[in-house]
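Any chance you could type out some protein's one-letter sequence along with its backbone structure tokens so I can compare the two?
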Amino acid sequence: MNTSTLHASSRREAAPLAGVDAPLAYLTEGAIDAQYTVWPPSSGREPEGPPKTYYPCHIADCREIADSLDLQRDGFVFRQQVSPFRDFFDDAKVKAIYYGEMEAYLKALTGAAEVFIFDHNVRSVGRAARGEAGVRAPVDMAHGDYTAASGLRRGGEIMAQRGYQGPAPKRTMLVNVWRPLHGPVVDLPLALCHALSVAPEDLVPTPIRHYMEDELTAPRLSGEIFSLLHNPSHRWYYASAMQADEVLVFKGFDSDESSATRFTPHTGFRHPHQPAQFQPRESIEVRALVIDPRAG
């Protein structure tokens, strides 16, 4: 489905959205035994991933359609969200303060019965290159964070860890909130692939293992994500020149099998019009379990 046409119709406009043309990395066709191994930057080891192939893609600017985007219908939204929090490289403060702020924000956004932030990634090319603990480089390959099986399993684990005592959820979602730490982002923005343009056969279940700073002999977490095969029907979106008071919120998993936007592939990409002088992108992405969001 051409989502640019879909949104243009809702805005009573026929013109396609403005955007940029840039290569995006996909899983190489025919890759055998694809898997990811994620090492902490402090280990000095580079992340290991399956072979990738770059394809030229048009990435539409969703600023123009921000007011019409809906998390349930489109799988992602772009919103202004002003946060007073600034200590993003202090892991303890992020968990103690920012998690609660984002839980309240997502609860209001989704109308959920409960929201639990359970994880976050802070990304910075420079800090990751210096081996700073807890900081990773931006991801340069299209992927989805969960499969149907791993999404259900992760949701159950989080509820157990948080001692959730409420009624059995009718629906759960795993939702990410992505925010730049400063703006404008002009080098490595985040691109999102509209789920309505992704065919089931484009999504390839791929094992992933995460090692942590304090344990390099065995993975702390093992799971399964989706790698993405190229399809010219894919419709990609980003938000131009994002600022620190703006966020992209997107579904990584939806337990509602009738939802057409259960998974949202995404990737960082190199902006083709990156200026000669710029402040490199730094960002934070929190992951949340959303329990019984309002229908939509």
Residues 1-14 have pLDDT under 50 and may be disordered.
